[in-house]
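Sample entry (491 residues):
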Amino acid sequence: ASAGAFAGFGSAVAGGASPLLVTGPTPQAVQAAIETLFSSISRTPGAQRATFSTRSWHAPDVPLIMSDRRIALSELGIESSEFSGRRFRNEFYIGMPADFYASAYGEASLLLDAAYSSQVLPGSHVDIYVNDQIASTVPISNNGGGIFRHLPINVTMRHFKPGPNKVTIEAVLMTAQDQACAPGAPASATPRFALFDTSEIHIPDYAQIGRKPDLAAMAGAGQPYRTGTTPVALSLDRFDTDTMSAAATLISRLASVAGHPIDIETVASPLVIGDRDALFVGTISQFPQALISQFNLVPSSQISWKVGAGVQQPAQNSENLFNDWRERVDGGIWEGQVSSFEEWMKRNFDLSSDTLRFLPAAEQPYAPPANVSFMLAQGLSPSGEGVWTLATAPSSGELLGGMAAMTRENRWGGVTGRVAAYDAGAEKIETVEVERPYLYSTRPFSFSNFRLIAANWLSSNVLSYSLAFIGFVSLLGLATFAMLRMMGRHR
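Predicted structure, serialized as tokens:
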């Protein structure tokens, strides 16, 4: 440090981690060392980027799709390949912006170039997954082999989210040799399937409008903390090692997905933040109750949340209580009638009770259950202008451990909704979706974008769409009736 500014990794310590050392003989030298960490980032905050930087875990960088675009899989890191086994699997990534809003109606297309040999039997199929969720299936029904040349496969955009999205192509190949499965028979080396890098993914124009709260936009693109012209307020319940380490982990993850450093201003008290965007990091018992209410959390969580003890759930309204009892009753007549009808609607029309609603349901206060050791919650400031994010746990140790676990690459993509809770025992994330998000404009008005926004909203609220359609048809009928009376034979 006495020789000058230095920023780099030191020798591995206990646990295999290598510490990042930023040192210098003077405060100015330390600042210079910090600046060298970001020298490779040339994009300024607010500037439009073309890719998500993913070189640390995936190559090439993930392209950001802002409008109608076709991309060959060769540009996404896929190479033409042959396969002789039973289950072929390959994947690539495409990126969506923070204001992506097409999960209820949008459809992308995969233009597949592939081939399968005469060994492959009918009943085999090619599946397309988006973020590990099935999005489309193409059955193979012909004998004698075949070639797909830009075969269009419709892929629902329901599972797309802001940030990088993983698209997986999986071919399940059945042959007579596999069905016989003779003991000692050698595996066949003859290729059964081939995927060509001339295949393309087509993303059409889609609706773009901001939503808040929305943890998916924060986790995928750093929204809204990447775009502010003023520093993001950071409130810590205490300045101990665990809390400061957890805050640093969260901020570094947000800077990574945003593509540039994020300006932070530490505040002494949550009461002085006002309505700007803010981050809150600490144990839940140390925050003011008024702050907890901004995240629509059960107030008793501050006292009752202990891992293994759980929190008493709030009193349920009649509708929720009815739904709970309907699930408990086994073989009841009412359950049989209602459940079978819901299953039929879901299977044939992809409609559920959540879809068949006039308006979104009211938000229910969330109480962290006994299995949760850490959670991220997002809400709005008192005026609704700012977005507040809370990272909290019952204790400082669980705060640090939960933050480290949730921000790992294989889990961070699962952070969505308004609450993301980490179950350390099962090592998984549980989420609570936003029922009534606030929509706000992120780009200049255009009729085409407004039309797409309306299409997505109406697709999420089918009854509203139906009533609007019936109203329009009724007005058209009345107008036609009035016109015919004015122009009829009695005139």
